[in-house]
Design brief:
The chain is α+β, with helices and mostly antiparallel strands. 28% of the residues lie in helices and 44% in strands. The longest helix is centred in the middle third of the chain and has 10 residues. The radius of gyration is 13 Å and the shape is globular.
Length: 88
């Protein structure tokens, strides 16, 4: 299961997207494939990694900086938001 799918299992992440009027298809996780490889390569079943997300809506593009907490055993992840920046 990829990182975005893990996040979508979380009510918190869905609420965050809704708050900014961002559709799931308009969310990009920076270096998602590399992040996924690191988690699998080091057999990290539980951990946390810094992550950068970008979401778009009619008002513009939003950059979300935070920490990804994940539990691959339960197939869950939580995004802990630390900062949001809006691009024009």
């Amino acid at each position: 299961m990829n990182v975005k799918d893990l996040l979508l299992n979380s009510q918190h992440f869905a609420a965050l997207l809704k708050e900014f009027f961002i559709d799931v298809k308009d969310v990009m996780i920076a270096h998602e494939d590399l992040l996924q490889q690191e988690m699998e390569q080091f057999h990290q079943l539980i951990g946390k990694k810094p992550v950068y997300l970008e979401g778009k809506n009619e008002a513009g593009t939003f950059s979300f900086f935070g920490m990804l907490h994940f539990n691959l055993t339960d197939q869950r992840a939580v995004f802990e938001l630390q900062e949001v920046q809006k691009k024009s």
